[in-house]
Amino acid sequence: MTSLAVGVVLCLTGWITLYTLLCNTSGSRGFEWNCRLVTLLHGILAVCITAYIGYVDGPWPFTHPGTKNTPLQITAMVISLGYFIFDMGWCVYFRTEGPMMLAHHTMSILGILLTLSLGESGIESCAVLFGSEITNPLLQARWFLRQLGRYESLTGEAVDVLFVVLFVFMRIVVGGRMLYCELISPRPRFIIKYGGVAMYVLSWVFMVDIGRFAYRKSQSKYRRWRNQHRSKTVNSHDGKTA
């Protein structure tokens, strides 16, 4: 456990150092810009490592939940734990996130700590990390596009659509299948199963918010299209009358 604690401290220090370097080199962009760059990097790194774990290194999370942690799984969890502690502290200090995101970070930190302390179910934690972080680059891309004034474009539309589709598929469909496999397996401990249910419920809370966003955006686009259509009809009528 001592070596794990040292590893987490080193990773936390690494994320803080990266953030500090970004602030020093591009301070004009603001604190949130640099924090989101760190978030983007963690998302890409976490997806790459956990994808390798799930698809190459193994075991397969749908058939082998509750197995002993492997060194690579431990490395992935330690890296992400250091990041989540950093980002949690940043969000609390700058008060940029709401209760849901803070709840997500809290559950992620507790879940990884539990998995590391038990020495098992690392493959499930890595699968959850993969499903959670695979949409992260798109989420950050939306924010960066807004800051650059390019969100209201075809690129912004593509990012939104891809984010919603990927979230529904990974967090709800695949996540639901993963939870089912976790619950019916005799290997994982009850507290791990309980944590899986809690994370899946939180995914549905996010899904409701995303559904509301998608509905509002579609309504806004429809009203814009209808107004443009009316304007064209009126102009066409005026032209014929003249």
From TrEMBL:
Pfam families, per database record: TRAM_LAG1_CLN8
Subcellular location: Membrane
Entry keywords, A to Z: Membrane, Transmembrane, Transmembrane helix
Annotated TLC domain residues: 28-219
Topological type in the membrane: Multi-pass membrane protein
Entry GO CC: membrane
Chief location category: membrane
Transmembrane segment boundaries: 6-25, 37-54, 74-94, 154-174, 194-215
Protein name per the record: TLC domain containing 5a
